[in-house]
Amino acid sequence: MRTIRDGSHIALGGFAIARNVIAVVHELIRQNKRNLTVSRASRASIRTCSSAPIWSARLIIGGGSLDRFGPVHCINRARETGSLAFEDWTSLSICFRYLAGALGLSFIPIKSLLASEILERLERGGAKRELSPMQCPFTGEAYLAMTALTPDVSFVHVQSADAEGNCRIDGPRWENEEQAKAARRLIVIAEEIVPTEAIQKEPGRTIIPAHRVEAVIHQPFGAHPTAVFGCYDYDAAHLKLYVDHSKRPNASASTSRTTFSRPEITTRIWRRWAAFGIWKA
Amino acid sequence: MTEIRATEIMVAAGARELKDSEIVVVGIGLPQVACFLAKGTHAPGLDASSRNRRRQYAPLHTPVGLADSRIFYRATCWSGFLDVMGMNLHRGVVDHRISRRA
């Protein structure tokens, strides 16, 4: 995490209450990073939400919440007070923009934003320079051109990877594959490190190949309290506590204390953090 | 008799719009409930993909949202935004899209 410079554009994997890169976000906060641009297709990421106003300057996001646990109060408050710059896209348009980045294209056309209120808001706001109406040179059809998204660093939490970085993602992938492959640097957080032989037995399950991965962090429970399919469920009590605390602007410090005082899981996370996993040379 | 809520009427009305074997992309909230109702009654063959990308799911327990694995139960495909919303909804090869309007 020390290599992430202030002012970087980082992309956070996962979606709503699943596979969020919680351990990474905690460490970025602990290292007091500043002026980060954060992009992802869904708004919710416990801790990201509470802390985004502190350590980031710009959010490039799609829709989302903490599902039935509630809205993302801290993000919404930052919007109301103007303490963060917002670009509110749709999940699909963010995904298209990552795809363009992953393909090495400078822009990508889309139809779905045309004639939407979201487009009007984007054009009024800070995202105007990321958009341009265009026509298909062959058919004359109307499109909207969007610039590519190329994060400086993408973080993605996966169920398993080998030490070289061949990654499996079980369950829905949302925009995580495009997001990972769009980035200049990709850091993977894995629940489990498996031998390369296991990967070779079922290569069709490899979503991200090793050559795109700069580092693999072995961090069991690194997505807690969000869920990792096949590994653990979301922690409903913790999510409720978080949403409750996030309603109050000054409660985040006490949330942190409560978070880390939970003995069973979080001390284990803390301890394993200290080791912070396998890094590729 | 218990009182009927407006949300229940909306769910029932939504479910009636869906016919068996249709392809539908479903948004979060009441549309999901409408889709489950249709699948559980007159449209067992409904091909439902949610915004969270899984096809033909048939949950047993009420999920808290689209990222809850309870909603993936009996899914026939796990994919992503590009597949469900891009290659289906954006392309226009679905019969219905039902979503919540703010």
Nutshell version of this structure?
The complex is a heterodimer of chains A (281) and B (102). Chain A has 281 residues and is of the alpha/beta class. Chain A is 32% helix and 22% strand.
Write the layout of secondary structure elements.
The complex is a heterodimer of chains A (281) and B (102).
Chain A (H helix, E strand, L loop, with lengths): L8 E4 L9 H9 L5 E5 L7 H8 E6 L11 H9 L3 E4 L2 H13 L3 E4 L6 H8 L6 E5 L6 E6 L5 E9 L5 E2 L7 H7 L2 E9 L2 H6 L4 E3 L6 E4 L17 H11 L5 H10 L4 H10 L6
Parallel strand pairs in A: 1-2, 1-8, 2-3, 3-4, 8-10, 10-12
Antiparallel strand pairs in A: 5-7, 6-7, 8-9, 9-11
Helix pairs in contact in A: 1-2, 2-3, 4-6, 8-9
Chain B lengths: L5 H12 L5 E4 L3 H11 L6 E4 L3 E2 L21 E2 L2 H10 L5 E3 L4
Parallel strand pairs in B: 1-2, 1-5
Antiparallel strand pairs in B: 3-4
Architecture overview:
The complex is a heterodimer of chains A (281) and B (102). With 281 residues, chain A is an alpha/beta fold. Chain A is built from ten helices and twelve strands. Chain A starts with 8 loop residues before the first strand and ends in a 6-residue tail after the last helix. Chain B is of the alpha/beta class. Chain B has helices spanning 6-17, 30-40, 81-90, and strands spanning 23-26, 47-50, 54-55, 77-78, 96-98. The longest helix of chain B has 12 residues, at 6-17. The model of chain B has no long low-confidence stretch (mean pLDDT 84). The interface between A and B is medium-sized, with 33 and 21 residues.
List its traits:
heterodimer, A: 281 residues, alpha/beta, Glutaconate Coenzyme A-transferase, nine-stranded mixed β-sheet, three-stranded antiparallel β-sheet, 10 helices, 12 strands, globular, disordered C terminus, B: 102 residues
